[in-house]
Amino acid sequence: MSDRHCCPDASHIKEALCIDTERVYDSCADKDCLRDLRLYIPEPCQRFVDNACAVRCRGCEILNCLVEVEKVPFNKGFYTVDLTFYLKVTCDLIGAPGCPVTIVCGLVCFNKKCILYGSEGSVKIFTSKYREDSIDEALPMVDTNPRAKVQCADPICLSAEICRICDCCNTLGEGEINVPNSISRCFDGCITCPPIGEKVIRVTIGVFSIIQLQRDVQMLIPAYDFCVPTKECCCDTEDPCDAFKKIRFPIDEFFPPNLEDVSNQSTPRCC
């Protein structure tokens, strides 16, 4: 909720409540620069890559991240978190002078591993959940491993280049990957692994991520009161021109700030 209720001191605490929530036992933040990753192109688009002279990266997005958590042998309470990222990269293929630019989308896959502390638990967890088409059947048992949570910002495509397979095979590896069906459906055509053409695209991508290990725990917290909303639901029916008049004039659009102004705004200041 966006409503904030401020209580001046602990005397306003009404009671202590036991809640069942997820506690983060360990976490890490990382900034990965992934160099010379092979871009897997759908088979119908491979001919455009073979005829291109240059490539320009337009953008990329994370399609999915597969997460696996396993215990670390002989290291009590620690777990390995294995991550497999699938990224969709959009590139502009530039051919001979005067030819139109061709837009293609390809797949980038990379793995990441980290070790975090997730504590230990030996209980078996069973839950029930109402289902409309069944008689409140119990859900399957949940294992005692902690759950991993991965948060990622939009990746940054730092560079892209075209090379012949024979010239860059040492940096790109063998080229065999396992593409899930859910990922393949995001592209127009079958992803060829390894590529069947003469040229490939290799990209360098920057990824920001936060990885957490968390467990379900019962915690005792102070409670002030129920969160009753104080803000009324607003259905704005005012005149569009009146709403436009309330918008601040975009001075920066007409008079772009210089480098000194931008540097002063980005420099942190202590109060």
Can you lay out the helices and strands and say which pair or pack?
Layout (H helix, E strand, L loop, with lengths): L14 E25 L6 H6 L2 E18 L6 E17 L7 E16 L29 E6 L3 E9 H8 L8 H4 L14 E25 L16 H6 L5 H4 L4 H8 L5
Antiparallel strand pairs: 1-7, 2-3, 3-4, 5-7, 6-7
List keywords for this structure.
mainly beta, three-stranded antiparallel sheet, 7 strands, four-stranded antiparallel sheet, 6 helices, 271 residues, 43% strand, 13% helix
Report on this model:
The protein has 271 residues and is mostly beta strands. The chain is built from 6 helices and 7 strands. Strands 1, 5, 6 and 7 form a 4-stranded antiparallel sheet that branches. It has a 3-stranded antiparallel sheet with strand order 2-3-4, with no helix packed on it. The chain is extended and about 75 Å long.
What is the structure about, briefly put?
By secondary structure, the chain is mainly beta. It has a domain at 22-121 and 142-217.
